[in-house]
Design brief:
- By secondary structure, this protein is α+β, with helices and mostly antiparallel strands.
- The chain has one domain.
- Helices cover 46% and strands 25% of the residues.
- It contains 7 helices and 6 strands.
- Strands 1, 2, 3, 4, 5 and 6 form a 6-stranded antiparallel β-sheet that branches.
- A hairpin with a 2-residue loop joins strand 2 and strand 3.
- The relative contact order is 0.16.
Length: 176
């Protein structure tokens, strides 16, 4: 069944962490969506959450766009997220802040998962750019290895702290 799996990334509210720079923060959930034939109609069934991480906007969304994700959100929210921090303080956004990213590309999903989990371990925007370049240059075997490590750790412990620990190990092994 070609195209029976689509990948969905939900961005949700998260309590802000203190950073040296001001950024919008979200909790991101990575999950597959399966197309199932039932009772003569096609149904979409959400899979198990594979990882959760704290991400920083708009860098995360820009990387998702670069990978070819479809972004489902209000246009006014996307414009507000691209404003400078001083303009954001002046112009408070009130409205639905739900953002959903979708793709059917397996490698784009794995790249975004690795980027999101490791991004939560890094705290400076300069390192996020280097991480983006590195994740784009990773080979498929590396993508599968690290994504499976993150998935299995999340499924076993149901804890973002364990993912942060693994993300730091990723930085030790992959970033010399």
């Amino acid at each position: 069944m070609e195209g029976s799996v689509e990948y969905q990334v939900n961005l949700r509210y998260i309590k802000k962490a203190f950073l040296p720079v001001t950024r919008e923060q979200k909790l991101v959930e990575f999950m597959p969506v399966f197309s199932v034939m039932g009772a003569g109609e096609q149904k979409k069934v959400l899979g198990k959450v594979e990882a959760r991480a704290r991400v920083y906007l708009p860098e995360f969304l820009n990387f998702a766009k670069k990978l070819g994700y479809r972004i489902e959100a209000k246009e006014s929210l996307l414009e507000w997220l691209n404003l400078s921090p001083s303009e954001k303080e002046r112009l408070e956004y009130s409205g639905d802040k739900r953002i959903i990213l979708r793709t059917s590309d397996d490698y784009a999903y794995l790249r975004l998962m690795i980027y999101g989990v490791v991004m939560s371990a890094l705290k400076t925007p300069a390192e996020w750019g280097q991480l983006e370049d590195y994740v784009l240059s990773m080979e498929p075997i590396q993508l599968h290895f690290w994504a499976s490590k993150f998935k299995n750790a999340y499924w076993k412990y149901k804890n973002r702290r364990k993912l942060d620990y693994l993300a730091k190990r990723f930085l030790e092994v992959e970033w010399v």
